TrEMBL record:
Name used for this protein in its record: FmdB family transcriptional regulator
Top-rank lineage group of the source organism: Bacteria
Pfam families reported for this sequence: Zn_ribbon_8 (PF09723)
Region (Disordered): 60-91
Organism of derivation: Comamonas thiooxydans
Domain Putative regulatory protein FmdB zinc ribbon positions: 1-42
Biased composition (Low complexity): 61-91
Amino acid sequence: MPIYAYKCGSCGHAKDVLQKISDAPLTVCPACGAEAFSKQLTAPGFQLKGSGWYATDFKNSGSKPAASTSSSSDSAAAPAAAAPAPAPANS
């Protein structure tokens, strides 16, 4: 359940409230009883940093990376083997 920040526009009382997303927003201030209690816009409580979970967790799994690695080494060796040998010079 998310935590919402509320502040009273009348007395300035601030409070963090744990509520369900489907709950109705609070309107009555618990300190002064005025109908000026409203939600505040706050920053999220988590940050996503780094290169991402996909690149770090699943980078080497599956058959695609193994196939591309082996095909790149095979293709590097193939041109050397396919190159024609120089013809001997007749003098």
